[in-house]
Amino acid sequence: MALSIPVIYGSVRTGRVGIRAARYVRDRLADAGHAPTLVDPAEHELPLLDKMYKEYPEGEAPETLERLATLFRSADAHVIVSGEYNHLPPPALVNLLDHFLDLYHRRPAGIVTYSRGSFGGVRAGVHLRDMLAELGMLTLPTALAYPRVHEAFEEDGAPTADQAEALARRFGRFEEELSWVAEALREKRAGVPTR
């Protein structure tokens, strides 16, 4: 059974290249039989956090918040794709995640980081683990880091020819772990007894 997986991307900068990694993740999840949805804060234009979604009276939240809340409520897992700004996740990503505090509970989160440099955004990933735990997500032990993201992916998210095999191998391990945990937690949330 396909898993519903929002792929939450974090940058709204002009000329951003990390969107390539987000597209790659989305496409590989679809290839694995899942139902991924790319969530790009540049398309949703969320305001700076004033009121969380849950703080609006029913039916009075802005339409973009309602759309995202519906998506997150139906999610089996989340994949967070983050760059690194001063060793931290981008402000747009933090703002997006903070709007929906109680909709992530008991769902796994896979962390994917990237950078133009050689570290692949891993320092932001360390901070994301703490943040996602506070939001109620269970982070996977396996994380993906994409250094030199501009050399690893084409604009549409396709891997560059020299990177394709290595990227596919690393993603396969990540997807397998995400699927296993997401399926187990989905059964538990549905009240299905586990062995």
**What pattern of helices and strands is seen along the backbone?**
EHEHHEHEHEEHH
Mean of residue pLDDT values: 94
Q: How many E strands?
A: 6
Query: Which parts are unreliable, with pLDDT below 50 for 5 consecutive residues or more?
Result: none
Residues in helix, %? 40-55%
Structure classification = alpha/beta
In percent terms, what proportion of residues is strand?
Answer: 15-25%
**Alpha carbon gap, first and last residue:** 19 Å
The shape, in one word, is globular
Give the radius of gyration.
Answer: 16 Å
Number of helices: 7
Largest sheet, in brief, is: 6 strands, parallel
Descriptive notes:
Helices cover 41% and strands 15% of the residues. It has seven helices and six strands. Strands 1, 2, 3, 4, 5 and 6 form a six-stranded parallel β-sheet that branches. The longest helix has 26 residues, at 164-189. The two termini are 19 Å apart.
Question: How is this fold's topology laid out?
Answer:
Blueprint: E1 4-9, H1 18-31, E2 35-39, H2 41-44, H3 63-73, E3 78-82, H4 91-98, E4 107-114, H5 122-134, E5 137-139, E6 144-146, H6 149-152, H7 164-189
Parallel strand pairs: 1-2, 1-3, 3-4, 4-5, 4-6
